[in-house]
Structure formats: structure tokens, C-alpha cells
Amino acid sequence: MKKNYFFIAIFALALFGSVNGQQIKRNIVANANFEDGLKHWRSYDANGRVAFSTETENPLSGEKSAKVLVKYSALTLWDASLKYFFPMTSGVKYKISFQAKASEDAEIGLELTFNRAPWTLLKYESTSISDFTPVDVDGNAARSGLDDNDLCGTFPITTETQEYWIVTDGTHITDWNYSLAFCFGRTEPGTTVWIDNVRIEYAEEGDWDGNLLPYGDFEEGIAPLLWQGDNEVQNFRIERNGARTDTWEVSDEDPISGNKSLVINRNSGNGVFWDFVFVFQFWTIEGVRTQTFFDIKSTNEGMISTRLASEPWDRPVNGDHLVNDVIVTAEVQRVELSPDSKVGGNNTATGNYAFDPHWLGRMKVFTSFTEGANQIPADSKIWIDNIVVNEYNLKTQSFDIVNAPATLKIGESQQLSIANVYPTHAPAHVTYSVDDANIATIDAETGILTGVAQGTVNITVKSDDDNAEETVAVNITSATGTEATFISTVYLYPTQVNRGNAIEIRGIDNSVSFEVFNMSGQSMQKGLSKIIDTSNLVKGSYLVKIADDSNTTKRFIVK
Ligand SMILES: [Ca+2]
Ligand SMILES: [Ca+2]
């Protein structure tokens, strides 16, 4: 990895020209690298045409990959598919990337669609796939007469692991709940396909904020929130006793924030819970708790009652429902429904709610304006805005610093970055700082480090949620002289393994000397390799000292 002075100077100049966007984008996909098996992924295979499993012997990267054995052809492309459900926001272009290979040259399919009828397809704007072929199905309303850039088609993969990417066209997003499907209905029976490292991220400016319910700020009106035509599964609706005269609209009258809020005119007198209810639903992943917020105010003081329930309510998994009663006033207040809320209803009192495993977890939030003795009086106006649904307690647990130089000359610059955020859909935004700005400065946002004076500077990189922090030391050297300057980008992958599995030393071209220590400082193992063998290590945390240019020390965990 040794680089000469001139290379560094050119490299640094090049980096200065593209400092924006150095922060990596947040990956929307949970368990994007399949290190937790197929958790959070949905395999759709009605008739046993394919077998979905996890590859542990020869994964594409890390310890595991998704593995799909195609046993029989399917009638349609999408009748055998591996799916991920995710929220999309209108106007945003998404970059979808993944690694794939097959046991022999093969065709696999990719589909990006509404997760509901009429299964409207998204379009793509650009792709690394040179021969993506739309799959046109006569007589299928959503799949006939496809344009070349409709995202339902097949493409070739080979026996070599390759990365593929597609950037979507942001102008056709008209819903919030989409499904990305790897499809195997046209793959030759007998073929095995491996997939790994799936990323869905913003392709341009901005980043995903973790909200599972886009459009809850009502700035785009009500249309993106509605499931037209099917009242039973509408994402958003007002339920009202037919005798009542209450109304609702998205209005620009005195909005809580932005230019619009949902405004409810509570016209009729008192009622019971179901007489006047505002309902929205969202999707999340099994085993995951969510946290829901919205802002509310009212011309007259009174109580609203909000319940959060899993759906369907009557399945064996049952749905606990969380009850939250709030007194609303003319002051805007943020209502929070959290897993710590009181548990009511006729189900278990665990505080956990479960999902129907067949569906992506479907949750409903009911807010009644006509519940109890303290309900908001007739002739009141109520505003609702900024509905946000987050995965509860989703924080960055770890990441790696990459591109850190071992040494840097005074006056030279190098841009640091991060990789391998865990969990894969955790916030990925970090802030950079140095412990001594007299020795080097760093741009908190872009990670550009600039040498100021000779000495050692410690750089701290911290996640925005304050939950993860990594440090690296850099020696700042004299601006004159001809000594080599080099870049250390060494990191471990993965950083947590089951005993016996290999850890790769990455970011270095050749084998390197390393020594593994336990947390008591006892030397456990030495090697000259790019692979750390964990067969002889018991469960626990270890430090590995890598004899690269900066004697990097990294931590890993054997499980
Ligand atoms: Ca993997
Ligand atoms: Ca608003």
C-alpha cells in the first residue's frame, strides 16, 4: 500500500474536488449482508420451486450469503422470489446495488414494485447491467407492454462474484411501500444463485431518515398516503359513524409545520371510540419494535385516545395493542407511542407486539377523537402533522474507519471515511474530530484531515446517535524530505465471527504479520497472512496488532 509523495498530492487534490457526499449513505436494508441469515427477508415460493437458505461454506463476503437453489421453473418470473420491503419517498432516486454469482452462467430476475395491487413497477434511470431485459406478460395489466426501463426483467450473472447496480427514476414513486424482489422464475432448474451485500440508498443529495412512514408531514397532500379503492387495507383513512358531520382535509390553514397539516373538523357531539377515528398503518420487520410520533393541536382542549396494534388482529400471533390517552390543547405537542406505553386490550400484557410472519409486520395506529368523558368537544378544529415511525432504539453499534493515513505531511490532506456500519440499516452519519488542532485539523463533516505541525494527532469518529465511536492516530511529519508517505486502510471483516470462521484483514495488498492478544494482553496467536484463523480462540474479545505501516490495532469478537 505504499504510495509516493506525488501520488498522495494528486490523490488529495482529487479528493478536494469531490468533498461532498463523502459521508456514506444510510442503507435502508436491514441484514443487508445476510450475516443474520435470511432475517428480515421474505422468500416467496408458493409451490416449492426453489429452496432458500444461507451459504456458510463459501459466502460472497463475510460469513454468510443468501443461497437460492432453483429446482423447478415457475410460471411467472416473480413466483419464486427473495424480497425486501422498504419505504420510498417521492422524488428521490435510489441506488440499488448487490453482489451475485451462480453455479453456472444463468439468468435471474429483478423486480421493484408497489407492495400491493396494482403492483405498479418502478422505472430505472441508469444501471451497470448492460442487458436487462423486461419480462412482458400478455394479459397481465401490470406486466404487459413494458418499457425498456421498467424494473421487471432478467439479466445474466456468471460464476464470478460481481457487483451490480441500478439507479431508479425518482419521478414515478407514488406509494410508500415498495418491494425489491430477486426473482428466479426464469432461472434454469438446477442452478444455485448466491446474493450478498444488498444496498438501497439515496443516489443523490439527502439521506434516509429512518422514517418507515414517508409523507407524514402532509406536504404532498393526502394522495400518497391513501390506498385507493380498498377500504380494508387503506394505509390511511378516517373512520366515521355515518350519522356524524365531521370532516377532514389537508389544509394550509395555520399548519403545525411546513405548508400543510391534516385538519379535522369535529362537528358533531360526543360519541364512542369508533365513532370518529383517524387510522394509519405502516410496515416493519418481525421482531422489531417501533416508535411512533405525531404532532397535534386543537382549538379546544380534550382527550384523544391512540391505540397501536398489529394487524391482522385475529391471527394466532395476536396483536397486543398499546393505549395512549393524551390531553390535546391549543399548544402543539408531540404524541409518542413507544413500546413502553401501557398495554391494554384482551391480549397478553408483555409489552411486546408480534407480527404475522407471513406479512411484513403490518401495524395500525387508531386515534379516536370521540373516546371517553373528556373527549374534544364539538365544533373543534384539530391539526395533525409530522407522523414519524421509527425502528425503536436503532443505533449504530460499530463501523470501521477507512482511508486513514499512517503519516501525513504538514500541509497535505487526506479524506477519511467509514465502512461496514452495523446494523446495516443503522444511521451512517458520523462526525470527525481531532484532539489537537495545532497538529492537524479535520473537517467535522467531510473527514478531510490536514497536517499542521509535526506530532501525533488522535482522530475520533463518532456516530450521530453517539452510540459508536472509533479512533485512529496519525503522525504528522515534516513537509520537506523524501521519506515515503503511505496510506493505511487496514480493517477487519467481519469483526464478529463464530469460532472457527475466518476473519479477513482487508485494505492491504499482501499478507501481513499480525499478533492476536486476548483482553488480558496475553499473546494468543501470530501469523503472516491476510486471514486470521479463529479455530483455536475461545469465545471473547481480542485485539489484533497488524504490522502495517502504522501498526494498526483492531478488535474482533469470537462468538
Ligand atoms: Ca455476507
Ligand atoms: Ca406539514
Overview of the molecule:
The chain has 559 residues and is mainly beta. The protein has 4 domains: 1-26 and 395-481, Sandwich (Immunoglobulin-like), CATH 2.60.40; 42-202, Sandwich (Jelly Rolls); 223-391, Galactose-binding domain-like (Jelly Rolls, Sandwich), CATH 2.60.120; 490-559, Macroglobulin (MG2) domain (Immunoglobulin-like, Sandwich), CATH 2.60.40. The protein has 1 helix and 42 strands. Strands 2-5-12-7-10-9 form a 6-stranded antiparallel beta sheet, with no helix packed on it. The protein has a 6-stranded antiparallel beta sheet with strand order 3-4-13-6-11-8, with no helix packed on it. The protein is globular and about 80 Å long. The protein starts with a strand and ends with a strand. Bound molecules: calcium ion (CA) (2 copies). One calcium ion (CA) is lined by residues 217-219, 255, 257-258, 260-261, 385.
Poorly predicted regions are: 1-21, 228-233, 314-320, 340-360, 482-486
Strand order, sheet with most strands? 2-5-12-7-10-9
- Annotated CATH topology of the largest domain: Jelly Rolls
Major sheet: 6 strands, antiparallel
Structural class: mainly beta
